[in-house]
Amino acid sequence: MTSLRRALLTLSLSTLPLSGAACQGSMSDEEALVGEATSSLTVGEETGDLGAEAAAGQSDSALEALATDASELPGVPDDAPGVCDVEGRRRRVLARYDENGDGQLGPAERAQLSRDLSARGAPLAARLALRHRAAVMERVRWAFDENADGALSADERTALVDALEARCLRRRAAVVAAFDGDRDGALDVTERQAAKAALQAKVQALRQQVLAKHDANGNGALDDAEKVALRRELVAAWKATRAEVVKRFDANGDGALDDGERLALKRALQQRIAEGRDAE
Ligand SMILES: [Ca+2]
Ligand SMILES: [Ca+2]
Ligand SMILES: [Ca+2]
Ligand SMILES: [Ca+2]
């Protein structure tokens, strides 16, 4: 059993009988919802353009909407030592949604979490201060919506949570490998600080890169007009990606992706996401 499954099981045992619809082998409704929210937080700590190829499945208007979410300066993380801290993130999700404080999510609390997860510009992201990553998570959700009905079924959501957990574990292993100075297989306080400083420096560099190009009046922030220019650039870049990806997956060469071709793209994307590529 994976660590996320184990962590979520603790939470879900008492509520399992309530989620009678859960399939064999799938997570319970509550596990899967908390898992998806936790996944969106782990995605939030990344700096890369995860799932950019999902642009191939988006309409122009969807790309515009995603660009609105994405045209914010990335925030510098203050909890970098917990890279891929699934359990800590799960606790944050619970703390936000467990309104009556009984340690589990009842039907109303679950319904609220479910609404927040499926809404674009999700209140979840706003509540957890991750607004600028909502667009990324939306592309990830698209990749796992295999039947393209615009929603994640229990199985689709389980696959998403499993893939993002696998990604998370790979990323954590990479961070440990990079900063484990004394080679004891774990990060002590000093090593964690070095990892945190490196991530913060990376995000700062990213901010500087965006500002250098888009902070036209040089006030160190992105004003509305400057964000418009950034949005325009993002949409143009994603359209270029879309054209390139459609070309790559258009097996019958008719210039468009049919259902089967789109599914092949989604599966390739799922694999890239789980393998931790696209990230940094
Ligand atoms: Ca679906
Ligand atoms: Ca160490
Ligand atoms: Ca400015
Ligand atoms: Ca085609």
Beta-strand share of residues? under 5%
Overall SS class: mainly alpha
**Radius of gyration computed on alpha carbons:** 19 Å
Summed up, the helix count is 11
Fold and architecture overview:
There is one protein chain. The chain is mostly helical and 280 residues long. The protein has one domain (3-14, 26-275). Helix content is 61%, strand content 0%. Helix 1 (3-12) crosses helix 2, helix 2 (29-44) packs across helix 4 and helix 8 runs parallel beside helix 11. The radius of gyration is 19 Å and the shape is globular. It starts with a helix and ends in a 5-residue tail after the last helix. Bound molecules: calcium ion (4 copies). The site of one calcium ion (CA) has 7 residues, from loops.
Helices and strands in order:
Elements: H1 3-12, H2 29-44, H3 60-70, H4 86-97, H5 107-118, H6 123-127, H7 134-144, H8 154-179, H9 189-214, H10 224-249, H11 259-275
Helix pairs in contact: 1-2, 2-4, 2-5, 2-8, 3-7, 3-10, 7-11, 8-9, 8-11
Bound molecules: calcium ion (4 copies).
Keywords:
single chain; 11 helices; 280 residues; binds calcium ion; mainly alpha
